[in-house]
């Protein structure tokens, strides 16, 4: 099962990647796009790979003064950037996309090595960045509002969208770069400047992106302060959330974090875009194409080692096919190739750290105390190649939806099998019966069932798929979820509007001054 990597020239490979992407042994605490700051005298954090425990590099952690410096630089840059025509801003983003294409393999490898997802998924993540750049380039010519007819003669009404200012982006470890690009590339064409605080667990991919961006900014003779990076932990995120100079904070991470950010931003009546935890389910009805469904279930449940916000956590199966599905899954799970994420035969890499492993083990223990039955997996792997203690065997548990652990998002590969009987409505009720509302899916070839799932009394999630699993969204649609997932939308469709302020304009081209609603207000002179 385990693929050894001794044969891989890994050290050389990683050294080359770090060199190509400008990662130093010790990296400064912040960048304003052109200038790096915070070179010494800061606390440091050493980043090790969850794949093999080796040190990759060290980062300096920004302090409050660094943060303030970055905000001030960004404020100045905004004055220039907002005056740059949107299609010209789009041209800069186009060049960033091209530069990402050039560095796709190297950045994909670093994503894989720093975060632990397999190389194929690392490449996919960089491809998402490229895709959103392409999308943003087109968008830069389409930041349009509606026009309306006025009730008053010779009057015209329309709506326009203006840049907001500084957009703060707080990102999670599991999509260390894609989530930033979803926000940053749209915000940039909208005329905003961006301050990015990557996860403290995966800051090196952020440093790499900043080096890539720097090349483009330099070539275009742009000022510093448009794309900023600040490396820090929750404290820096908290400064951002409380800071009135940051009109929009886009935060991706746990619901616990989102509540704190939402409260702080809300208290100052700022805007927040929250992308938080999910508890995603696939419904398998009696009419499901099981061959298709099984592939989607396994990818959704164990891909990225269960560390996607859209990972499949619950499988709601009709009682008539329950035993068959269970049997098929129990055949597949023991043979899943677990190993080093840069080994091309691996499908499942490690969890991000030992805390995540403990959360996995604790969840399995608790769900069994509640009455759940562990059917397979759950072990923490040890021995040759698994010395880091971060590799686990994905687990399947028979459970009931109301169990406390089933109601929680455990960010690890645990799949809960839940049985339903009767009509699809019963399955939908179970699927909606959690606090989170990110992604959902149904596998069925019955139009009646799939349309019920998509109807206004169907899935209550931000994403509802038919005959496709819960994970692996495309950038063209708006991405986000309801309930405790936070309600935010980013990426495609009209998600760009959150990065702009909206203005309604009424223009009078007559020589009269009629008031709306026919109000008479004549001044006698
Ligand atoms: P996390 O909440 O621990 O951290 C996320 C980010 O928030 C980090 O940058 C962290 O430094 C920052 N942060 C933490 N506390 C903060 C505070 N009080 N104020 C400001 N910033 C703070 O999450 P994680 O472990 O990195 O990521 C996993 C979680 O992210 C999962 O719950 C997953 O579902 C969620 N996620 C959601 C989406 C989505 O689009 N809905 C996408 C990816 C990940």
From TrEMBL:
Pfam families given in the database record: Aldedh
Transmembrane segments: none
Catalytic residues, chain numbering: 275
EC number, UniProt record: 1.2.1.3
Major enzyme class: oxidoreductase
Annotated InterPro entries: Ald_DH/histidinol_DH, Ald_DH_C, Ald_DH_CS_GLU, Ald_DH_N, Aldehyde_DH_dom, ALDH7A1-like
Keyword Ion transport in record: no
Keyword NAD: yes
Coiled-coil boundaries: none
Keywords noted in UniProt: NAD, Oxidoreductase
SUPFAM superfamilies assigned: ALDH-like
Domain of life of the native organism: Bacteria
Domain Aldehyde dehydrogenase, first and last residues per copy: 43-504
Recorded GO MF terms: aldehyde dehydrogenase (NAD+) activity
Family per record: Belongs to the aldehyde dehydrogenase family.
Subunit note: Homotetramer.
Name of the molecule in the record: aldehyde dehydrogenase (NAD(+))
């Amino acid at each position: 099962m385990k693929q050894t990597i001794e044969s891989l020239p890994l050290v050389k490979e990683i050294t080359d990647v770090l060199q190509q992407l400008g990662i130093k042994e010790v990296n400064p605490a912040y960048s304003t796009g052109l200038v790096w700051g915070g070179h010494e005298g800061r606390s440091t954090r050493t980043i090790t790979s969850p794949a093999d425990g080796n040190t990759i590099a060290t980062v300096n952690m920004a302090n409050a003064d660094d943060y303030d410096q970055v905000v001030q630089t960004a404020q100045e840059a905004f004055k220039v950037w907002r005056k740059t025509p949107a299609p010209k801003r789009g041209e800069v983003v186009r060049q960033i996309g091209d530069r990402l294409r050039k560095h796709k393999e190297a950045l994909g490898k670093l994503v894989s090595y720093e975060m632990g997802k397999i190389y194929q998924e690392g490449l996919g993540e960089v491809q998402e960045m490229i895709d959103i750049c392409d999308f943003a380039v087109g968008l830069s010519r389409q930041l349009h509002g509606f026009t309306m007819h006025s009730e008053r003669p010779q009057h015209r009404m329309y709506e326009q969208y203006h840049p907001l200012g500084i957009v703060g982006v707080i990102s999670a470890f599991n999509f260390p770069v894609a989530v930033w690009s979803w926000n940053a590339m749209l915000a940039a064409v909208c005329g905003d400047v961006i301050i990015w605080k990557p996860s403290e667990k995966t800051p090196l991919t952020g440093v790499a992106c900043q080096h890539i961006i720097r090349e483009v900014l330099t070539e275009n003779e742009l000022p510093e302060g448009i794309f900023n990076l600040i490396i820090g932990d929750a404290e820096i995120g908290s400064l951002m959330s409380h800071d009135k100079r940051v009109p929009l904070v886009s935060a991706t991470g746990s619901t616990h974090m989102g509540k704190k950010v939402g409260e702080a931003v809300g208290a100052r009546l700022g805007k927040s875009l929250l992308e938080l935890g999910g508890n995603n389910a696939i419904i398998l009805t009696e009419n499901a194409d099981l061959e298709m469904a099984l592939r989607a279930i396994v990818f959704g449940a164990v891909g990225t080692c269960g560390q996607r916000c859209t990972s499949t956590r619950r499988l709601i199966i009709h009682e008539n096919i329950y035993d068959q599905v269970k049997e098929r899954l129990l055949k597949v799970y023991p043979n899943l190739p677990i190993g080093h994420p840069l080994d091309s035969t691996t499908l499942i890499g490690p969890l991000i750290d030992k805390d995540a492993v403990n959360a996995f083990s604790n969840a399995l223990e608790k769900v069994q105390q509640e009455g759940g039955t562990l059917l397979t997996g759950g072990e923490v792997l040890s021995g040759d190649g698994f010395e880091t203690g971060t590799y686990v065997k994905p687990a399947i548990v028979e459970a009931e939806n109301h169990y406390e652990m089933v109601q929680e998002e455990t960010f690890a590969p645990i799949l809960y099998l839940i049985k339903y009987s009767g009509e699809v409505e019963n399955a939908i009720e179970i699927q909606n019966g959690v606090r989170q509302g990110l992604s959902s899916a149904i596998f069925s070839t019955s139009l009646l069932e799939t349309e019920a799932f998509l109807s206004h009394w169907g899935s209550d999630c931000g994403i509802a798929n038919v005959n496709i699993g819960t994970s692996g969204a495309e950038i063209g649609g708006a991405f986000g979820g309801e309930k405790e997932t936070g309600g935010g939308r980013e990426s495609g469709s009209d998600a760009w509007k959150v990065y702009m302020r909206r203005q309604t304009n009424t223009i009078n081209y007559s020589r009269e001054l009629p008031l709306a609603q026919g109000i008479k207000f004549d001044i006698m002179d």
